[in-house]
Design a protein that fits this description.
107 residues; Glutaredoxin; 4 helices; 5 strands; globular
Length: 107
Amino acid sequence: MAKPIEITDSNYNEILASDQPVLVDFWAEWCGPCKMIGPVVAQLADEYEGKVVVGKVDVDANPDISVKFGIRSIPTLLIFKNGEIVDKQIGAVAKAVLAKKLDTQIG
């Protein structure tokens, strides 16, 4: 069972450089909506294993990456392809919404 990768200020460049699309969940322990979407992100990591890299950034522990990508509210989910942001979702949404966004990037 695949789990989301912990993305930090020190490893994000390496992860975002993946040749697969990368879904990044910016979250914090104290954030209620983040806790709602956390299990969805974990399910996506498992279901898209080998097709999409799924990671999580704790914004409190990793302020540099959060500032770099202009994260002002959480949860924010960014989808990267070839190191560039190609899609964004702010706030908790249904799993189907995120799956559709990922499917668009896999093709």
